[in-house]
Amino acid sequence: MTPYPSQHDETEHHEVAVVGGGQAGLSTSWCLTRDGVDHVVLEARTLTHEWTDSRWDSFTLVTPNWQCRLPGYAYDGPDPDGFMTREEVVAWLAGYPATFGPPVREHTAVTRLTERDGGGFVLTTQGPDGPATMTADHVVIATGGYHLPIVPAWAPALDPAVTQLQSADYRHPDQLPAGAVLVVGSGQSGAQIAEDLHLAGRRVHLAVGDAPRVARRYRGRDVMTWLCDMGLYDTPVASYPGGLAAREKTNHYVTGRDGGRDIDLRAFAADGMRLYGLLEGGEDSQVRFRPTLTAALDAADETYRSINRDIDRFVEREGIDAPPPSSYEPVWAPAEDPATLDLVAEGVTSIVWAIGYRADYRWVDVGVFAGNGRPTHTRGVTSVPGLFFLGLPWLHTWGSGRFLGVAEDAEHVVSCVTGSRRAPLGAPARVG
């Protein structure tokens, strides 16, 4: 633990320090501001940087606009059932701080967090004026769970003439050198980037992972609207089959582009995209794949059908007047699971890695982490008094990592803060 500041220490003190100024951090600040709690929001870059810096040009939300709700602030535009573009999300989110005036410090990174003798925490920061230290009775870490992009250890062994970049760095097809592109990963980012390249006329090779798929619309409504009405976004993670293991699940791929539609990898393949199983390894211009393509496509389709069947049962049980059910039939099937790809022979000049992220909490020097480096918590509340997490996928429900669920999570965390408030330790009296 870090010793309590000395009598002559002029360390800045706040009752609550919120680390991260995205939607989770701002939602926390809104609740704290409403409750009159002294706090500061520390943002390493800018409030909207995750949306401006880590999304491609054609990006759209995959959740309907009506699900964009933060505490005291909700989408009120003309298209509640549509899907905001990147620029629209940035503009919407940028309007939030003006509604309550959060005490934000941008370009101020927290480089270390430790416990303080006597209670509370010490935060070491790096800001525009250099390093500094502050103390807080409570800390809410709202930096999300996607920090370090995952890249195979063998990636540097590939032909250096092939451009490699992360999905967060992809912007548009013309950014890449002319030629074919290998996209690795078929989660939401990988599937949508592959589609973006495919629609631009680029030859795309896609290494398919185990992400499931979901229909965009079914029986007259957006599927995510059905799922919300069915209560799936509000069900606690512990109540899902497998319990906390649900936090390891990959989100379903779908798109909000051009008003929203399914992403059907089989249809892409029928239109010329080359599909493969999980990327297993590679060297120079040769890459190898596991024979998992057929099983991955079948499993994704079964999830698609299963969700539709759940909607059918809900419609019948509730007596809802809806269009009749329909059934998806595959439009393409692989003749075999390709085992290798010669990048040079196929004219592949770029690889886009879209296989996920790892959490990076090395700056948090507090013992609240599991062996996988992720924080252990119950609905954002850790075993260390005063330390909380917010904005994580499946923090409490499926909606936790979305605009839809962050308000409820922020309310809970802030209620735990205010419920445990004591006379703040504050900084010691200063001696002149």
TrEMBL record:
Listed Pfam families: Pyr_redox_3
Assigned keywords, A-Z: Oxidoreductase
Matching InterPro entries: Auxin_biosynth/cation_transpt, CHP04046_FMN-dependent, FAD/NAD-bd_sf
SUPFAM superfamilies (UniProt xref): FAD/NAD(P)-binding domain
EC category: oxidoreductase
An example Gene Ontology molecular-function term: oxidoreductase activity
Enzyme Commission number(s) from the entry: 1.-.-.-
Spans through the membrane: none
Name of the protein: Oxidoreductase CzcO
Organism expressing this protein natively: Nocardioides aquaticus
